[in-house]
Amino acid sequence: MTLGLVLVIIILIGALLATLLLSGKGDEEYSKATKKNTTNLTLIYIVVILLSFIAVGVYIRWFV
Length: 64
Fold this sequence. Notes:
Elements (H helix, E strand, L loop, with lengths): L1 H22 L4 H6 L1 H29 L1
Helix pairs in contact: 1-3
């Protein structure tokens, strides 16, 4: 169980970092136009991570 949780956290952090690194590539105008999209995507990751932790907590509390 601990190994699975660690793997999920590593994958989430890796996906977040990859998204942020890839969003900085391209020409200058494209970077300016996508700043809001990057912010929105970062907020989505934060919400998904929090919901994932809650779901794992619920699973551990009631099903293990």
